């Protein structure tokens, strides 16, 4: 019966393909040990102090670069890398910046892979590496406590890599959501630049990323500073009065209801601010947006004791103009608002 050290020595001599297969079969022994003491003493030879960092990590990354990998092999390597990084974190074993950067090369290589399971492994690995880094980096630990402190160059570099990736890449927005969760929404918004809110709203037009972009939007709004909230209000009001029907529908049917579910008070306040923003620029699209906001307010207000009525949200002349408007869509919006009005018996 081989002990762990002898087993590691044998594995280290295998080619990349056999190494991955063997490690996958033995992952519960090597990557998820029952005791950290056993794990820390794993050596594959006298030159390597840690089998995990000096052998496993390098061999897995080398294996991931092969051009002949099947989808199963790509996924298996991702699973092993995730197990490896999680184990390192649980044992408080650090990786150098170069090692973390090399590990993330798997993410950048496969995060747009056709298989959903592999893309999931990539985002999970990104999160694991970021958590490992945040546990170990003094600069980033200070930045998490003191919002005025700067994040380290390595973390900022990873974020810039994500931001520079393709706009239509679903994993890109999942990665940004991961960053927002681990750092802070307001910090992420600052790092992404002044044009990011507009670009994020435009991404809702891409139906393949609508769900994750909606989640990211709600998360950024939930942690926005006062000045950022004013900025978001302007952009959301513009989106709700956009000429793009898909963008308007995404905001009304997905983003705003999700925001209300997560933070009802903030959502109501945001709708009020958006309505005021739209009053300053009257036209057909803003009129439709105001009707939509009023409908949303009535829908969200059903849980309150004193129900709102439409004439508390809109002036009578606005409703009259809408009901007699030349555009069918506006007339329908006005009628929908009247239909949504709570009945006296309710």
UniProtKB/TrEMBL annotation:
Per the record, GO CC terms?
Answer: cytosol
Q: What InterPro entries does its record include?
A: THADA-like_TPR (IPR056843), tRNA_methyltransferase_THADA (IPR051954)
Q: Which Pfam families match?
A: TPR_Trm732
Residue ranges of domain tRNA (32-2'-O)-methyltransferase regulator THADA-like TPR repeats region in the record: 229-346
What GO biological process terms does the UniProt entry carry, in alphabetical order?
Answer: tRNA methylation
Superkingdom as given in the UniProt entry: Eukaryota
Name of this protein: tRNA (32-2'-O)-methyltransferase regulator THADA-like TPR repeats region domain-containing protein
């Amino acid at each position: 019966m081989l002990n762990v050290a002898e087993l590691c020595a044998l594995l280290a001599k295998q080619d990349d393909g056999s190494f991955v297969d063997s490690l996958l079969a033995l992952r519960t022994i090597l990557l998820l040990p029952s005791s950290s003491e056993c794990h820390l003493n794993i050596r594959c030879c006298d030159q390597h102090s840690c089998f995990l960092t000096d052998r496993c990590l390098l061999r897995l990354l080398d294996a991931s670069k092969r051009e002949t990998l099947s989808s199963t092999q790509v996924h298996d390597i991702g699973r092993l890398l995730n197990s490896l990084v999680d184990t390192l974190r649980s044992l408080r074993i650090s990786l150098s910046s170069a090692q973390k950067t090399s590990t993330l090369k798997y993410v950048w290589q496969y995060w747009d892979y056709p298989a959903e399971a592999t893309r999931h492994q990539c985002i999970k690995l990104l999160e694991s590496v970021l958590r490992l880094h945040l546990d170990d980096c003094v600069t980033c630990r200070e930045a998490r406590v003191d919002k005025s402190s700067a994040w380290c160059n390595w973390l900022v570099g990873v974020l810039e890599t994500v931001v520079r990736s393709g706009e239509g890449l679903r994993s890109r927005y999942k990665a940004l959501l991961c960053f927002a969760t681990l750092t802070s929404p307001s910090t992420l918004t600052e790092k992404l630049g002044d044009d990011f809110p507009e670009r994020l709203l435009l991404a809702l037009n891409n139906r393949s990323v609508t769900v994750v972009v909606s989640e990211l939007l709600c998360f950024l709004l939930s942690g926005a500073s006062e000045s950022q909230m004013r900025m978001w209000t302007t952009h959301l009001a513009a989106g709700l009065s956009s000429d793009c029907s898909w963008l308007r529908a995404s905001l009304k049917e997905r983003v705003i209801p999700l925001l209300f579910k997560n933070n009802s008070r903030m959502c109501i306040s945001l709708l009020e601010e958006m309505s005021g923003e739209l009053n300053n620029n009257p036209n057909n699209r803003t009129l439709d947006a105001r009707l939509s906001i009023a409908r949303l307010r009535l829908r969200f207000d059903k849980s309150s004791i004193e129900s709102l009525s439409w004439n508390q949200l809109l002036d009578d002349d606005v409703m009259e103009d809408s009901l007699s408007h030349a555009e069918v869509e506006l007339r329908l919006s006005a009628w929908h608002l009247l239909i949504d009005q709570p009945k006296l018996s309710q």
